[in-house]
Amino acid sequence: MNEMMIDITFDLIYLLSSSLVVLLLFAFFVNGYVNKKVSVYRNEEK
């Protein structure tokens, strides 16, 4: 019973860490995309 709980806990930690990495990558790409859009928009205003 105890070993099963430990396995589930490790699975949850693994899922959380992998999803966090994916979220960080996603946020990084979105940030770069938005920055490009904003700089283009500002250049057009001048």
UniProtKB/TrEMBL annotation:
The keyword Transmembrane helix applies. Keywords: Membrane, Transmembrane, Transmembrane helix. The chain crosses the membrane at residues 12-34. This is ABC transporter permease. It comes from Bacillus cereus TIAC219. The lineage of its organism: Bacteria, Bacillati, Bacillota, Bacilli, Bacillales.
